[in-house]
Write a structure and sequence with these properties.
The chain is of the alpha/beta class and 180 residues long. The protein contains five helices and nine strands, in the order E-H-E-H-E-H-E-H-E-E-E-E-E-H. Strands 1, 2, 3, 4, 5 and 9 form a six-stranded parallel beta sheet that branches. It has a three-stranded antiparallel beta sheet with strand order 6-8-7, with no helix packed on it.
Length: 180
């Protein structure tokens, strides 16, 4: 089994695309293929000590899921199942997609919901990301003047995605025991 599990929720497929971009950089012994949270069990997630979680923010700061008018269940339905799991000893990194122009008052808010659950359950969360270079009014995902994970805007700053992703992965490399 690979050392790192990567799990995502999506509505349009953009978060899946980023998860695949991450996986492409690593061999199968290092990282498993990305899995949509609507196609996995809690046991599958908890089998890893190193986890990367990805989510878009929909509407007015919502996780993807049925109440956000997604066609399928996603983080909204899966995340509550993680609330009684013990994440002690696990290292988690989070990336989130959002639209800072269309939704400047709730940019990448959904990352914070995942962050809150895993930190409440004892996870070590790594990969905080600077807010410089973004134009938004407010984000719940900003803690101590940084995003709780990598913030990506494929709608307005897609040209920065690959560079940001590479810098972020280098920033979490030591915590994930990665050679980059």
């Amino acid at each position: 089994m690979a050392r790192i599990g990567i799990f995502f929720g999506t509505d349009t497929g953009k978060t899946r695309k980023v998860a695949k971009m991450i996986k492409k950089l690593f061999d199968d012994d290092t990282m498993d293929k990305p899995v949509n949270v609507n196609r996995c069990s809690v046991e599958e997630v908890m089998a890893y000590d190193y986890l990367i979680f990805g989510t878009p923010t929909l509407g007015e700061g919502e996780l993807p899921g049925l109440s956000a008018e997604c066609e399928n269940e996603s983080w909204e339905e899966f995340l509550p199942q993680l609330e009684d799991q013990d994440f002690s000893g696990k290292t988690v990194a989070i990336f989130g997609l959002g639209d800072q122009v269309g939704y400047p008052k709730e940019y990448v808010d959904a990352m914070k919901e995942i962050y809150d659950v895993v930190t409440d359950q004892g996870a070590k969360v790594v990969g905080a990301w600077p807010t410089e270079g973004y134009e938004f009014d407010h984000s719940e995902a900003v803690v101590d003047n940084q995003f709780v994970g990598l913030a990506l805007d494929l709608d307005n700053q897609s040209n920065l995605t690959e560079e940001r992703l590479n810098r972020w992965l280098k920033s979490i490399a030591a915590d994930f025991d990665l050679n980059l």
